[in-house]
Amino acid sequence: MSKKLYIGNLSFDVTEGELEKSFSKFGEITSVTIIKDSVSGRSKGFGFVEFSDENGAKTAKEGMDGKELAGRTLKVDDAREQRQQRKPRDNNYGYRSKRF
To answer: What are the structural domain ranges in the chain?
Structure first.
């Protein structure tokens, strides 16, 4: 079990403070993050809550999955490991440059 939880189906209006307040009753929280669009800055509707121990995360998952927050039914699950980001492609679309 992970100490970090994925929180899905968030209202676009929910703040990190509101999310922390809703989950803090289950244990000590070390971080809260709502994922935002890099261009508009608007919430993408999901985020993460990390607890100081696995027991807090387990209790929060059991207590909040399927519960309502700001008019939306939350989907709470263990966070998956972050995937490695791919290297940016060059402008040659995979072909070698003829320049040296």
So the answer is: 1-40+65-76
- In the three-class reduction of DSSP (H, G, I as helix; E, B as strand; rest coil), residue 43 is classed as strand
Q: What does pTM read for this prediction?
A: 0.80
54-72: per-residue pLDDT in tens? 999 999 999 999 999 999 9
Query: CB within 8 A of 54, min separation 6: which ones?
Result: 1, 2, 3
Whose structure tokens read 């387990």? 58
